[in-house]
């Protein structure tokens, strides 16, 4: 069998005159956590729906778990798990009743159904809440129920569409621990997100903006290819300093983090550029030190460049 469980080649999808996805290509290897990163409206959810066999592409091609997304959508649906950002289970059913219902939909035998429900209840920490109505759960607990239902039939591939939107930071961290446990046990995971810290948790990433892929690779590869150098500093008149730095041709991005200004430049020394720019304006610089370039730095840089090119 191929090492690629997902192959997308030039996928496109239009809704009338609206082009939601224009050119998406990437491959997902078996057993990895693959992140599709992009802002709201970038085409992430539309891409996932095409790969799941829910939407037909208007251009390009793709295969998922060995099946063609346009010709064999039902075969794909039987072999994947799917979880959306919105709680899509039955809120007037208990946790156990939801699990039992979805086990029936997936065609699990009575004996297998009981065993699998017990397994996911223990794995997700839902054992003490089996009788609670799903609609009365908090966002984090609803998320656990949705993940439990999506993995009942032990699919080789799990799609997670903005799974942590609106969930508190502690629940998000617990959720990602569960995702890594699933991946370690052999499940391939494709997750869409616009949270940059979550992107750092993936094995590989695809950056999508305005329906097209900007880059694909590991977080470290993407950051390194961008050639960013970053520094953080404390400076008097922070707002004026930020304006001066943004006007400097070498500066890629400037952002405020409380009393700290974060400056990123491409293919140059960020500390030297920042000091030279602010010294020329007579602004006193306090602490100034180099910082690690992040996936967020790389993504913002790509989006700014793409927007400037289109303008």
What's this, in brief?
The chain is 37% helix and 30% strand. It has helices at residues 44-51, 73-77, 95-105, 110-124, 139-150, 169-184, 196-199, 219-226, 238-247, 270-280, 295-310; strands at residues 4-15, 18-29, 33-37, 59-64, 67-68, 80-83, 157-161, 188-193, 204-209, 212-217, 228-235, 251-257, 260-266, 285-291. The chain starts with a strand and ends with a helix.
Sketch the major β-sheet: 6 strands, mixed
Q: How would the global form be characterised?
A: globular
- The whole-angstrom Rg is 23 Å
User: How much β-strand is present in the residues?
Assistant: 25-35%
CATH superfamily of the largest domain: P-loop containing nucleotide triphosphate hydrolases
Please identify the structural class as seen in this structure: alpha/beta
Helix % is 25-40%
Query: How many individual domains?
Result: 2
Describe this structure in words.
It is a single chain. The protein is built from eleven helices and 14 strands. 37% of the residues lie in helices and 30% in strands. The model has no long low-confidence stretch (mean pLDDT 91). The strands form three sheets. Strands 6-7-8-3-9-10 form a six-stranded mixed sheet, sandwiched between helices. Strands 2-1-4-5 form a four-stranded antiparallel sheet. It has two domains: 4-222, P-loop containing nucleotide triphosphate hydrolases (Rossmann fold, 3-Layer(aba) Sandwich); 228-292, Alpha-Beta Plaits (2-Layer Sandwich), CATH 3.30.70. The chain is an alpha/beta fold and 311 residues long.
């Amino acid at each position: 069998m191929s090492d690629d469980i997902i192959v997308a080649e030039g996928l496109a999808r239009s809704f009338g005159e609206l082009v939601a996805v224009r050119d998406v290509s990437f491959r997902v290897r078996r057993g990895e956590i693959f992140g599709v990163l992009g802002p709201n409206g970038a085409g992430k959810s539309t891409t996932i729906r095409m790969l799941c066999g829910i939407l037909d592409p208007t251009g390009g091609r793709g295969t998922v778990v060995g099946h063609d997304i346009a010709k064999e959508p039902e075969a794909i649906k039987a072999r994947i798990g799917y979880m959306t950002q919105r709680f899509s289970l039955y809120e007037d059913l208990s946790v156990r009743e939801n699990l039992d219902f979805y086990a029936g939909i997936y065609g699990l035998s009575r004996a297998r159904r009981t065993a699998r429900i017990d397994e996911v209840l223990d794995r997700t920490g839902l054992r003490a809440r089996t009788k609670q109505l799903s609609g009365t759960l908090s966002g984090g607990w609803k998320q656990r129920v949705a993940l439990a239902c999506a993995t009942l039939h032990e699919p080789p591939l799990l799609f997670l569409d903005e799974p942590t939107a609106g969930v508190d930071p502690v629940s998000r961290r617990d959720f990602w621990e569960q995702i890594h446990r699933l991946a370690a046990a052999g499940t391939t995971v494709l997750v869409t997100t616009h949270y940059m810290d979550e992107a750092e948790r993936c094995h590989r990433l695809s950056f999508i903006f305005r329906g097209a892929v900007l880059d694909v690779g590991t977080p470290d590869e993407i950051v390194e290819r961008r050639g960013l150098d970053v520094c953080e500093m404390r400076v008097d008149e922070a707002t004026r300093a930020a304006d001066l730095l943004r006007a400097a041709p070498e500066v890629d991005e400037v952002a405020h983090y409380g009393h700290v200004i974060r400056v990123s430049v491409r293919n140059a020394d960020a500390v030297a550029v920042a000091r030279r720019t602010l010294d020329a304006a007579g602004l006193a610089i306090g602490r100034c030190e180099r910082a690690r370039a992040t996936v967020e730095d790389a993504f913002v840089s790509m989006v700014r460049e793409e927007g400037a090119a289109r303008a």
